[in-house]
Amino acid sequence: MIYSISTGFAIYFVLWWIVLFAVLPFGVRSQMENGEEIAGTDPGAPSAARMGRKLLWTTAISTVIFVAGMMAFRGGYLNVERLTQLMGIPL
C-alpha cells in the first residue's frame, strides 16, 4: 500500500503532538522552587516555560521517529501482515 503525502503529513502531525506532550514537563521549575512567586498566580506555575526550545526538541525528536518509521515501512519491517503476526491476530 502506498501512502500519499497528505497521509504522511497527518501521521507526522499526530506524532508531533504526542511528542510535544511528552517533552513539555522536561526542565520545568515551578515558581515556588525558584523562589519567584508572583502574586495572583499558582505557586506550581512554571517560572520559565522555554517553549521555543521545547518546540525545537519536539520537531527534532518527531522527525527522527517519523524517518525511522518510514524507513521500517519501506524496508518491509512495518506492514500489516508482520504486525498482526507479531500480535498473534489471525489475518
Describe this structure in words.
The chain contains 4 helices and no strands. 60% of the residues lie in helices and 0% in strands. It has helices at 5-23, 31-34, 51-74, 80-87. It has 91 residues and is mainly α. It starts with a helix and ends with a helix. It is elongated and about 60 Å long. Helix 1 packs across helix 3. The longest helix is centred in the C-terminal third of the chain and has 24 residues, at 51-74. The protein has one domain.
Short summary of the structure?
The protein has helices at 5-23, 31-34, 51-74, 80-87. With 91 residues, it is mainly α. The model has no long low-confidence stretch (mean pLDDT 87).
Helices, strands, pairings?
Layout: H1 5-23, H2 31-34, H3 51-74, H4 80-87
Question: Which short descriptors sum up this protein?
Answer:
91 residues; mainly alpha; 60% helix; 0% strand
Tell me how many strands there are.
0
Shape: elongated
Order of helices and strands: HHHH
Helix content: 55-70%
Class of secondary structure makeup: mainly alpha
Strand content: under 5%
- Overall mean confidence score, pLDDT: 87
Give the uncertain stretches in residue-range form.
Answer: none
**What separation lies between the terminal Cα atoms?**
16 Å
Determine Rg (CA atoms, Å): 20 Å
The major pleated sheet works out as: none
Domain count: 1
The number of helices is 4
